[in-house]
Structure formats: structure tokens, C-alpha cells
Amino acid sequence: MSVSWCRNNSRCVGLWNACLMVSDISWDCVDVSKSKIRVRYLKFKMPVVNLLELDIKKVFEGHTIKEVEQIQKKIQNESERKKVELRTLVGERYRDLIEAADTIAEMKQTSECVIARICNMEETCHKLQQKYLIGFKMDPPEQMLESNKSNEAYDSIVMQIKILMDIPEQIWSAVDTENFLLATQLFLFAQHINYSLRIEVGNSDLATKYPIILKQWGVISHFRNVILTGCNKVLQSLELPVESAANCLASLVLLDGMASTELLKKLITLRSQAVEAVIKDESHLSVRNRISLSVKMLTHVIDLLYSCFVETNGKEQGLVLQCVEEVAGSNAPTTLSLLKVDRDLTDKFLSPFAKSHKPSTRGEIEPIPEAELKNNLTNWLSWVEGFVKREVSKLLDLVTSVKGIHNIREEVLALEVPQNWEIMCKKLSLEKTVNFWGDYFQLLLTERVKGIVSIKWDETLFNLKTDLFDTLNKVAHDKCEYPEHDLRWYIWKDSPSDIPQKLNRNGADNDRLLLMKTRGFSPNLAKLCESFDRNLLNLLQDLHLYLYQSQKSTTTTTDLLAVKISSTLNKFVDREIVQEQLQVISTQKVHELSQFIRDECLVEDAKVGKREVNAILTARFFQALTILCPSLNKCFTLSKVSGIVIPNTKWQSICDTLRDDSLAAWTVWAKIFKRKIHDHKEGIMPRSLNVLKMQTMICDWEKVTIEEEAEEGKRMKSEILVPYQPSISVQKFLAAVSKDLNSIIPHTLPKKILHEIVDTVVTELFEYYAELSKNDDLKQKQALQTLLDTKYVTLLMIPRENKKFVDKSSQICDDIQSKIDPFDLDVFYPFIHANVKKSAQRTQLIFGNLVPHSEQLLSVLGARMNPVAGDGAKGATEAPGVLAVCSGAPWFPPLTVTAPARTVPIVPIASLQDKSMRKKTPTKTHARTDSAGASIKSGAAAFFGAMGSDWFGTG
Questions:
Q1: pLDDT at 271
Q2: C-alpha radius of gyration, the chain, whole number
């Protein structure tokens, strides 16, 4: 409780004395003077009840709920009882205090009356003495003058004491209103009066004759520290008007005699401390508010220095010098005019020196030299740079999103700077125009944005790795519901959502399930890419707001002397830096992802899943990243206009990298698949000639009737059996490989990998046939079948430009032909050659995945015709629905799903020109037309030309 009593009121003085006699009440006296007693607080010393000192935790641990409720009621009752006792005690003591105060007041009045009467008695006695002695003693005129002078001096002393009694209250009023210049004037005036009284009365007599002067000066003297503390506090405040700063600095000049340079350093130091307090203080202010306020305060320092020390209000003089001139100049009013005193009494009794008193400075206040001003400001700016870099960086670490950095930038750019900012910096002797935001803060925000991008990318990559591990673990089980190593459950399953209602190229690829199926992207893979793309999209949306937000037009401000910071600098000055950093970080993270997959998923002892399944999933994942993750593309092609993609070499490089990574993963799978091919060969191809003989006997050979001319001119007919199709083991082996390959969706495999698989199949077969051809026990019939198998594999699976396999095939054929009678070989070879083409034509669709040169093969095979019904008759084409089971109909070539089919000219089968065939005319002939194959291909091209541009395109 704070109480203020008047010292001159007898009732209050009595109450104060009575308060001191009460032992149960503690008074803290702040100010004791002749005119006033200030009491800060009042507290009652009350005994502490054990019930109020209970430990709450122990109460709840050792008592039941009912007992706790009883204890609560006891505490409440005890509290109410204490309230009643306190009211009673205060009432009783207050009554005693009033009675004591009244008694003291009466005693004071009685004492005053007694003193007054004694004084009257002394005066009367003195008059009587002078009256009776007047005839005997007369005072000289000089003594009369001295008496009059002493009376005047006494009156002057009393008047000055009266001023000392009144000044403290007026100084407090000035301090409360933060008018420290007025408080300084009053304090200096009181100091002047105190020194004057010491000179007039004397130090030795002052304590004995006028002790009140010493007491009152003791009260006034502490105002010096009060004023200095108040000035420092105002100069460190967040909002500091120029007038308040000049008022405080002028007070320091008068009170401490500080020079202009010292004032400059003090102002810079105190404002720096204020900025430190804003940045370092753990207050409720957000990071955005702290940075905005610090920029505002730093900008205001320049304004303060310019206005206080250089120029203000159009005058080539600082506001501090103007304030000092107004109170200490020749035209300044006297300090006495600022006091609330009786003018008549002061004019009559106060000395002329007191009447004309004005504050004075210890030396002449001169403007700050240009070199000194420049040196101090340069040092301060160096401090600002280091402080901002050190402390604001820590503050920005608390911001975890690019949107938060954007809000900070918007808040600061909305601040206003004086319109004559450049003139201020120039007159403050600065080498260049200061830009606190652009020079010190913007760089830190740019670095923080780069750091946030890196952190968000790390989080996204970590989530992707976690999701990838979970997916690989899930699909590694043999009984997985949606296996990745066999996608036939997904590719060949029709769904109503395969084709959307509207075919829009701008739609998301993962919403077009048919397109996803053609590319071999499973739902597991789509989910992975979707999650990865969503995390990147959140980052890109924040970045797009930060880098490409439309610049709003600056609104007209009512203050013509202020403009916004945003109009003095480029808002998006760091756009290219952030975009380049985004590309660099994205490139690093993509390479990190590739390295992670190679080291964790594709090694022999993979930490998760099975190596084969991992290779398939990761290979397709690398392919899908560039298609199903548009946000990854935007990381390299982020632009102002949404939907516009700017070509970028770095993105092309990333696509090439991912393509290479996908190829590397497929290579890992291909190594595993090659072992399966070898196992199929070992399990299917006969290792014994007896088994081969049995299969040859079971195999259905074509019966061909030939005619030849005998010596007598007669024509003789004979029938021969010619191998008609590849052996069962070869077809079974190729079917097994094709079946395993079909589960991988072979049209999604890179051509290089598919060619490696085909080369492996050919290598395995050629190794088998090479070993078989060197067996001396090989019979002629077996050799004929083996020759057809070798030529069939060569025609179906080896392009003409593959010299290695072509030469190998020729060598194997030569070895096999050496096991056949030359005359029989001349008879059988043309039919074997024709049947090889027929077999390839029949099976090229079944084993189409193993044909690496379909267009070349198609140009060699051409199309088949139905047998000729008669001379000049033309074969009729079978119905399209039964083409696959007709013997005379042309077979469809494998249909391409990545591009519309092109019309390939059909080359007719060359007629047999062998010399040995001139005398042999087989009765079984095969008619064909060149238009059949062309019509088939044109129909396919028409169909896929209509659908392929949207569904089967590469985009």
C-alpha cells in the first residue's frame, strides 16, 4: 500500500508518528521532507498457521478424498477467520492512529502558541528596554542600516528555504511527464540556491541556525540520479520521438556537462542496447515482430542522429543545440519563471542573483566534426553488421517455413523511411546510402530460405526412403496381395476407371489408369510417387509465394516525408539465388536417393526385401519419377506463370541420370533373369540323344510329294517327310522364357535390357546346339530337326547386323549339315528353309517379346496366302475372327504400343532357284498376295493412329 501525507498537516504528522509506534505494522518510507511523507507499502506481520503450510502432494498422498475436502474446508474457515481478524486489527489500530494524530496536532498547536507568546514577551521586553534607555543611549545610523540589512537577509533566506521546500514536488511532476529538461532546470536552480545559502549563512552556522536547509537538500540531491536514470530509460525505449531524445540529451548537457561527441556516442550506445534487448529478449513477440521492430529502430537511429546533431526544422543546427539554446541562451527565460511561487514575495525578498538565474553549460556546445561523425557511424554500422549476422541468424533458425520468411519480408518492406533518406546519409558523412534491410537482413533471410529448402528436402527424402522401405518389405512376401514381380494381375484387369470421362492431356497421369498400365506403373509405385510429389509441392508453393508474389502498388501515404522500404530496393533480388540453390539441392538429393537405392536395395545382401523384386520396383520407380512427380520437374523449372515449363539443361541431366539409374536397376534384374534362362535350358532342353530321338519321332513332320523325270522320260512321284516346325523342347523353352518375361510387362523394359535377354536366350541355345552338333552319334533325322531349330532361332531372334551370332549360327549349321547326306540335304534344304519362315511367321506373335527386329523380320517373311483352288483362281481371306487358327491366313505382326505402326513394304518370298529343284516340282504350294499384309498393317495403323496419340504416346 502506498500513502502520501502532507508534512505540514499536523494531523498527518501525528498519524505518522503513531504509525512508527505500532510494532505489528512495517512502513517503508520513500520520501521524508518538510512538506511531504511518502510511504511505499504497508504490511501486517501475522503469525503463520501450520495449516497454511501444508504440502499439497503429501496431503493427496496421505489422505482420502473426504479428508482432503475436510482440510479444504478448514483452510477456507481459517482464511475467513484471518480476514475478520485483519479487519478488526486494522480498525482498532487505525482508530488509535487517528487519536494519536489528533493528540499530536493539539500538542503542536499548544507548542506553537507557547512559542508565539514567548516571542511576544521577548519583543515586549526589548521595546520596554529601548523605551527606558532612549534618553541615555542612542544607536548610530550605521547600526540601524546593518539591522535593516540583516532583516532583509533573513527574509531572503526564508524565501529561498520556501523555494527549496516547493521545488521537489515540481521536479517530481516534470519527471513523471518525462520532461527531464525542465526537471534539470529546477534541480540546477535548487543547487544554485543551496550554494547561495551556504555562502550567505556559512557552512559552520548552516547546521545550527538552519538545519532544515541540509535536510531539504538531502531530499533534492537524489534527483540528479533520478533524472539521469530517467534519461537513459527514455533513450532506450522502443518508441523514441526526436523531441524526447533531444530533451534527454539537452538534460545530459546541462546536468553532466557532456560534449556533442559524448552525446553522440551515448545515444548510439543506448539505441544499440535497445536493439539488443528487442532481438535477445525472450518476450511474447514473434520473430516477425522482433525483426520488423529492429529494422525500424535501426532506421530511426539515423533519423535521430540527423535531427539531433545535424539539421532539423530547416535549420543548420541539431535539435539538441536548439534545446540548450532555448534554456541557457541569452534570450532564455529565467528559471524562477518556471516555478509556481508568489511573484510578489519573490520580487520583494529574493536576491537579484536568484531572480536572474539561468542554467549554464560547462563549455560551449559545438557541432560534431565531420570526421568524428563519420568515424562513430562507421564503427556503429560495423557493430550492426556483426550483431545482425550473429543474433538475427539465431532468431531466424526458429522459423521453419518459407512462408514465415515471406511474412517477415512483407512486414519489413511495409515499414516507412524518411523521404530525404539519401540526404540524411550524405550529411552524416556516410560513404553510401545505408540500407539496413538490403545490406544486413535480406542476406540472412536468403540463407535461411536456402536452409529451409535443404531441411524440407531432407524431410521429404527421409519420408520417401521410409515409404520405399515399407513398400519393399510388403511386396517381398511370396503371398503379397499386389506383387511387383508379376503385374499381370494389374495390367490385364479391366477397370471402369481405366479411361476417364474426358481425355485431357493436362490431367494428371496417375488419374489415367490405362496410361499407367501401359507404362507398367503399379498402384504401389503410384502411391510412392504421389506422397513424394505432395511433400515437394508444399515446399514449392511456399517458394512460389516467396519468389513470384505479385508486387502490389505502393499506396499513397499521408506522410509526404516517408516512403516504404519496398520502393527503395528490389523485393525479389534473391530470386535467382534461391532458384539456383533449389536446383543444386534437388540435384544433390536425387543423386543421394540413387546412391541410397544402389547401396541399400540392389546389393546382394539387401537390407530390405528381395533383390529381384527390389530391382524391378526401383527400376520402374526411377522411370516414374520424371512422369508422376511434376513437382520434381518444377524444382528445376520453377517459373512465375503456373503451367509454363521452361526448358532446363539441369532437368534434362536429371532425367538422363534417372534413366541411367533405371537401366542399372534393370541390369541387376537381368542378371537374375539370365540365371532363370539357364535353369530353363537345363530343365527343358534334352541332354540325351535318346530323349532327342523320342521327341523327333513324336514331332509331326510335313509330308511332301515330289516328282522327278526318270531316264525313260517318265515322271515318278515320291513322298518325303520334312520338319515342319521347331522341336517341342525349343518351343517349350521359348514359351517358358516368354512366360517369365510377360510377368514383367516386357514392353516397359528398355530395349538394351530386352536385347540382352534375347542375346542370352540365343547364347544358351547356340551353346546347346554347338555341343549337339559335335556329337558323332547324331542321326540324320535328328540333324534335320536340329538344323531347322537353329535356322529358326537365327531368323526369329538374330538381326542381320549382328555378325557375331550370324557367324556362330553359320558355323553350327555347317556342323549339323556335315551329319546329313549331301544328296538328301539338297532335297530337304529348300523345304526346311521355307518351313523355317513359316514357323517364324506362325510364332512371331507368340514369341514376339523375344524378337528384337520385328520390322526387319516382317520384311523378310511377308504374308501368306490360301492354297490355289484352281488355275487363275484367287484364295479367299478368312474371317478376321479366326485368323489365328487358320492355316492359310497371314499372321498379325506384334503391335507397337509406343508409336503408331508404319507401313512396311512386304517383300515376297524368293522363288527357289536351286539347280536341284529344276527337276523337282512339289505338289504342295502356298499362294500369297502382297496386299494381305499391307491391309492388316494399315488397319492396325488406323486403329492405333486414332488411340495412340493420347493413350499410347510417349508423353
A1: 92
A2: 55
